[in-house]
Task: structure prediction
Amino acid sequence: MIPEVVVRPRGTAEIQGLLACARRHQRSLTFRAAGTSLSGQAVTEGILVELAQHWTSAKVLDQGQRVWTEPGVIGGFLNKLLAPHRRRLGPDPASIDAAMMGGILANNSSGMCCGIAQNSYHTLESLHLLLADGSQVRTDEPEADARLRQTRPDLHEALHDLRDEIRADPALVARIRRRFRLKNTMGYSLQAFLDHESPAEILARLMVGSEGSLGFLASMTLRTVPEPPARATALLFFADLAGAGAAVPRLAALGAAALEILDSASLRSQAGERSYPFEIGARTAALLAEFREEDAGRLDTQVARAEEALRTLHLLAPVRFTRDAAKREDHWRLRKGLFPSVGGLRPAGTSVVIEDVAVPVEALAEAIRDLHGLFARHGFEDAIVFGHAKDGNLHFVFARDFSDPAVVTRYAAFMQSLAELVVGKYDGSLKAEHGSGRNMAPFVEAEWGAAAYAVMRRVKHLLDPDCLLNPGVVLSDDPKTHLKHLKALPRLSPLADKCIECGFCEARCPSRDLTLTPRQRIVVSRELTRWAQQKGPEARRLEASLRADFEYQGITTCAGDSMCQTSCPVKIDTGALIKELKATRHPRWALRLARSAASELALVARLARLGLRVVAGLRRIPLGPRLVHLASAVAHRLAPSLVPRLPPALSLPGAAGPLAAARALEGAPRVVYFPSCLTRVLGSLPGERATPPAQAMLDVLAAAGFATAYPEGLASLCCGMPFLSRGFPEAARAAAARTAEALWAASREGRDPIVTDASPCAGTLGELVVAELRQSGRMLRTLDFVSFWAQEALPRLGVTKRRPGTAIVHPTCTLLKTGGLADLLAVARAHSEKVVVPASAECCGFAGDRGFLVPELTASATAREGAELRELGDARLYSTCRTCELGLGRAAGRDCQSMVHLVREVLLDG
Result:
């Protein structure tokens, strides 16, 4: 479904204007937050209202007991804010690190541990909402109900009367109570009429699970739940589903926080990424079980009881509960990544379907067998089943090419059979937590019955009489709406074809608020492919126009940091895809120039330093800053990928001075220090007084008792990243290979560790050449500073001094991708009284030279973190890459230094 227009409103006044416009022109409005739910509720052919960019405020209240948030805030971000208080959100969907609060409330999300009691509906405290006529309701106000009676007396009276009418019908009351004894997001939240007295409170709860079809959620306050710190997790293997199902009530009775069931197809879907203790058979099943307690002693007791309860059951492997955070996270990655992973394994060109149902817990294993029978009967044998066993909540996933009418016909028959099975045999829920969307809208009446469905119709008419809010979602007059607008996915490349457009990647993308996200880059690329397959001048025109826009929106502003891959369950690296695209477009002369630059790096560095000196000199003369700006603008237009724009307000480092001599200490362990290109080219910012990074490195290494040496020919060495990021992989590998040979010699054939002052250098060398060297038997240890200091220096130093106050540390992308966060925190905590990692810390978007060439990318990527840093006061800022430090310094309005400087200050200046 292609929207007529996309709007990004900035406040409630603009929402009211949109609502008035929709009424005036009879256009539908659909509100979209993250768009991670794929049941059709966040797409439209009318006006699409995107909230991700401007609705991002949040506040922790009452020491974490409550949280206030706008709809564009990611749930996982709120959990970061709540973590110091040992609290979290009640709803915990697998998409929590990508899903936004507007969608979490609008879908009545629950998840893996929250069950029903801690879902969105039951943890909601108050709402600020806008109705279809533009009127506002704030249920956090003491007189909210009186105000509603004053501003909308018709609505107040209608809700009051409907409440009494429902309560006067015992059969309907029983029906509502029975439907919500299981997880249920099918239709509207009719339990609101039974759970609350005032029309204002009833109205607020009706909004939960309404999927934007009854009003707009401007902000919300939720009660939080405890987050016990002691945890133990196990993956339990059974011969069949019956065995797994038999374990569920036993473990649930013991207080298991989570029990996730996985069928054999689920386990096989990730067999390529993990090893199992035996071969997964056709009937194998597993339970992912987790216990959570406030202290280790109570956890030990619970685990012991669980192990005792499991002894009488036939398991295929020994029970091993782990408390190790990394191993526990690996278990949860298996579960959280099932849907996208299955989507990634599907044949190219097919679309993925996910649905979730709920049945009584005691019928869980039987229901899974029945589902597999449906799949076989209707030709969807590749489907997998998994879900929240403790709640009887099952998800299933399969993929087909819905451009084939025969597939759509089979799918229609399958959906009808599914409704008959879940409702007819099990009296279950056709939607447990994903929201009715479009796919289940035709079946709401079948599940609820005529009386309850009529009430839902009345609610819709009361709140949206013109049916302008997300029509066709939750309720639909079209019995075949679930068979329409099924999305085709044109083939792009083996890697991109895995993308199911789940949106998990978007929260990690530095350009998400400026241009496109990784998901959108792939979607636009698919659209370009679709238009390229069309005939006629109009198709050519549209393709050319889209391709021209994509140059800046998709390519120029892609940071290429590959952080999207870290949150993509199928490991799609959109940054690498964009680099590949760049590589295919380089003319031959550019390839030759890149190879020449890679072989003449000393000359390139000299020219770069000369350029910095010239700019600095010109800026010191009258009208110089203006002259530099005009000249750089012209040069940037001629060579946008080489020359940055230099407006007067843009602070630029000076040129680096000569390196200090390496230090030989008699009898000391030896370290090869490889200063990065950035250290050798970029000097201090105007007014910056810190010791040059190379000098600081030599100082701290000597203070820790290490002798240092430089590799021979240092001026000509580079890790290759500047070439790799620009789409010159051959030049990058050539530069990295030459550097690796020099480092191999300097390290006395791998006996000495190599340390660099920039995390990306260590990461790039590891990516391009170190792994190949190891395959040939040459072991080369390349470490960034924090990894070296944590692993080699701190054990030598023993007890270290700490600087008083707070150190705010920003983890670089490379550090996170290589698993170095623990080392960063270890170094910071060893040398600072208090350490803070900003909750909003993500890629700074500097991305090598992007911060110079496309400064708006860095400004956008660091906007949230910069605001958080300013709120944290004047605490010192530290990172592990010079360009990241420049970007963070711009955002915070004060210097950001290398972690080396923190260590130096404590060891030498303290």
User: Anything to note?
Assistant: The mean pLDDT is 92. Residues 368 and 760 are 47 Å apart (CA to CA).
